[in-house]
Amino acid sequence: xxxxxxxxxxxxxxxxxxxxxxxxxxxxxxxxxxxxxxxxxxxxxxxxxxxxxxxxxxxxxxxxxxxxxxxxxxxxxxxxxxxxxxxxxxxxxxxxxxxxxxxxxxxxxxxxxxxxxxxxxxxxxxxxxxxxxxxxxxxxxxxxxxxxxxxxxxxxxxxxxxxxxxxxxxxxx
Amino acid sequence: xxxxxxxxxxxxxxxxxxxxxxxxxxxxxxxxxxxxxxxxxxxxxxxxxxxxxxxxxxxxxxxxxxxxxxxxxxxxxxxxxxxxxxxxxxxxxxxxxxxxxxxxxxxxxxxxxxxxxxxxxxxxxxxxxxxxxxxxxxxxxxxxxxxxxxxxxxxxxxxxxxxxxxxxxxxxxxxxxxxxxxxxxxxxxxxxxxxxxxxxxxxxxxxxxxxxxxxxxxxxxxxxxxxxxxxxxxxxxxxxxxxxxxxxxxxxxxxxxxxxxxxxxxxxxxxxx
Lengths: 173, 273
Description:
The complex is a heterodimer of chains A (173) and B (273). By secondary structure, chain A is mainly alpha-helical.
């Protein structure tokens, strides 16, 4: 792609993009997976694929593309592991609880997210992190509008009723 | 159904919960893998073509061709190139400052506070435009280190009514009024990005500004400057500590200006009277 200096400039741009966007992408991936390790892998995959298309994407919406890669890669991952992931009545206890407020809050949020189904997490990510409308969420996920409404309602009820999250939000208003 | 406060609370929680420390990201590895993926995608049709030819030639040969074609080693290797260090906010701010000082001109629209809006073209040695406030507009000229305005846009605040009367329509020498000094020339403009005792900048959000992607450089409690993602990282927007904004446009493409300093006889210095 072009001369070495052109490629170097493109790479520098991409480094800027990746450095600035990584926390936001990680947040999306974390909400989708509730698993920090998997979320990191999804972000790296998204950045790698974004870099592969950077010469064309750089003047479009590279952040949006990276988010779509995360969402699609997570669906692929979920399909591959379907049958191995099971919802449980009881949210698993954390191995250790750090009393530092940020860690406690993160722990509570992750446990609350783990209580959601994969579909509920996808809807929550689009509705709350990407600020999609219900109609846009339905289009993006290819599900009926009514399903988006009911899934959103159910997910929020789960988040609200999660005792771990209640404790965290009370501790960190 | 779900009520609005729950939606807001959930949205705020998911947007703001502490992500914790992020593991170091090996951007060099990401870029290497991205390049490899790009090359493999580009090589796709060649691979298919080679396979078709090989199938015609014979199954044994086909296997060999296809196998070699899909291995990275069959793709012309990229010669090792020095890898630039990851960009830092401080590095970007320095680049933006240098780019500003070496530009030929820029159009700036700046909120100076108190309802005063400055609309100027700033070049290497001068500036020219208008200063508007409360429905009044004054001409603005900067030549060398001196700043002049003509009109009563700053009347009742920076300039007293009695001084306006005393000026009798002459230019006001405004060099003692600090907010205008940042717009004398590009060097002064660049210097205003990093005032004394400004903290080290941090990288903030990215935003599309006038069709280009810009990244925020945050100097806590001082200002936030959005600079272009693409080199040479020219500033696009600046918010000061009070939230007032300066918008930059037309870098190196502004209409030429050639302001002339007013005749001393046509200048009134309010700081002396």
